[in-house]
Structures are given as structure tokens and as C-alpha cells.
Amino acid sequence: MTHKIIIDTDPGVDDAAALLFAHNHPEIDLVGITTIFGNADIDNVTANALFLKQHFGIAAPVARGASRALARANGPSPTHVHGSNGLGDIARSDGAAGAIDPRPAHRFITDCIEDNPGEITLVAVGRLTNLALALNHAPQIAALVKGVVIMGGAFSTAGPNGNVTPVAEANIIGDPEAADQVFSADWPLTAIGLDVTRQVILSREDVAELAQAGPSQALLARLTQGYLDYHARLGIDGCYVHDSSALGYLVRPDLFQMQSGPVRVACDGVARGQTIMADIHTPYPPNRWDDRPHISAAVGVDARAMRALVLEVLGISDQA
What biological-process terms (Gene Ontology) are attached (predicted)? Predict the structure, then answer.
């Protein structure tokens, strides 16, 4: 089975791994890369996408996306995690001239879906602004897309919840209005959030082995060093596998345990950015979750098997 996908991304160290995963996996046909502000500003993440496309030998076009959230000023970029340029501050050569698709990302997304009805899966591993803009531009894509898989959110099922605040995950709090709109659309949406992505960890030894596996893997290992140092400050001897886990779900859904229900995103106050799923078995009084579509959220994962899958696709074997 082949999955024809567009990755909406803000490269980003873990985004770089996800791009290599998508490029390498034989069941994934990467037809487009759209960029979104987040791990760095839109200029840097777009340059990063072009650089990675060139270095990894990816044929898919790159389209530049939104530079700011729908309804609020952008927060600061997480330079303490991804470096000032988003790729761990490695030296970055420019992408090929003319490599940017002339359409803004949301138009690229809607055009691809309308030209390939029932075939395109959107894999969004950053803020959800481009997806919200696409829905606003062409609401009919909700009925034409094959599926939507996001890396985002936290549903309080596996220990600590958020990673920006106690309740909010970075991709959601970065544009909560866009996230609430995306969760409310009537399309098949799956959220792979912190509940599972923090269970899948690549060790320092895994990254060191990547460095010996080939030019693409060596680049990935080099730009991951600062990311490893950030995780070490959290007491983790390795790094979480966030964005690649969303692609892992796409090709191996059997590795995940899922929960279904309507989701609202808190857009204001102390809980801003929280993803709140209603318990479908509880008879609540009328509320703001009523008449919302059910989404599927990952609440469990076979972490060992997921790690092994990532290592295999990136080009090394699991020695653990």
C-alpha cells in the first residue's frame, strides 16, 4: 500500500528526521513539502526544507507557508531546542534556485487534494495554520482528503502533559485558533501527541550509529547534537521521536492504541493550547463539544517496535 502524502513542517531537528523517514520508506510517496513558522521563523524553516530536500535527494516540491499565527503574535522560536536557525546551527548551504513552488502552502495543499481526490494524506508536524488557511480557502477539501495525521497535542494519558506549559504542546499553543479549527473540520483526523511520542526514544548510541550509515544519516546525526544536549538537561539519554512517530502511525497503525472523541482547543487563559477530548461515555449537559466530529488520538504505543521501525527506515538496525 502506498501513502501519497504532503508533509507540513517547520524544520526543525525532528522534522529533518521525519523528512528522511518519508523519503526512505517504500510505502510513502512524498508529493509535497509545505513549510510553517515554528521551530524557527518562516525564512529559516523554508531554507531548511530546501537544504534538506537537496541533501536527501528528495524530488518533492517545497511551498512556503504562513509566517504567523491566525489571530495572535508569534511566540519566540525555541532556540534552546533547535538552535537559532532551526537545524542545530549547522552551516547550511542554500537550496537550488527556483526550488520554491510559486503557490503559498495553503493553495498548494488545496490544489493537490482537489487534483487527487481521495488520495492525499496530510501529515502536519508543526503549527496547524496552513491547514486552517486551506480549509478557509477551499472547505470542500475536507471531503476530498484521504486523511490528516498531525503530530500535536497532549491528552493526559501518559504522565506529564504539555511541553510548553503544564497542559499545552508546542504545535498547538503556537496557533490554538488554527488548531481548534482543524480539530473541528469534518475530515478523518488522527493526533499523535506527547502521550506516545515521549515514549519513543533514540539513544545517543543510535545517533552515533547514524553518523556512520551514509551522507544523509551523517547530516542528521550532526544536526541532532544540540537536540541531544537539550534532552540531557531533561534527564534523557537520547531524544524523543516526535515527528517521525506521526509517519510511523501512517505505515504501522497496529503499533498504536487509539481513543476517539470530540476535541476542543483552549484558546485563552491559563489552559491556552490544551487539547481537551470529551469522554464519549459520559452524559454531559449541553456543551461546546456537542456536534463536533470525533477525532482519533494515540494514547499508547509499542515504543520498542516504533523505535526499531524508525532506525530501520533511517538506515540502521536495532541492536537493543
Answer: purine nucleoside catabolic process
Q: Does residue 305 carry a pLDDT above 90?
A: yes
Decide if 23 contacts 58 (C-beta within 8 A): yes
Mean residue pLDDT of the chain comes to 94
Domain of 17 in residue numbering reads as 3-314
- Would 73 be classed as within a structural domain? yes
Q: Is 94 an active-site residue?
A: no
User: In CATH, what number is assigned to the domain containing residue 27?
Assistant: 3.90.245.10
Note the pLDDT tens digit of each residue in 66-114. 999 999 999 899 999 999 999 999 988 765 555 799 999 999 999 999 9
- Among 10, 15, 41, 195, the active-site one is 10
pTM of the model: 0.96
CA distances to 37, 57, 241, 251 from 312, in Å: 30, 19, 14, 13
Report yes or no on 320 lying in a domain.
no
Catalytic: 294? no
- Any domain includes 212: yes
Q: Is residue 288 a part of any domain in this protein?
A: yes
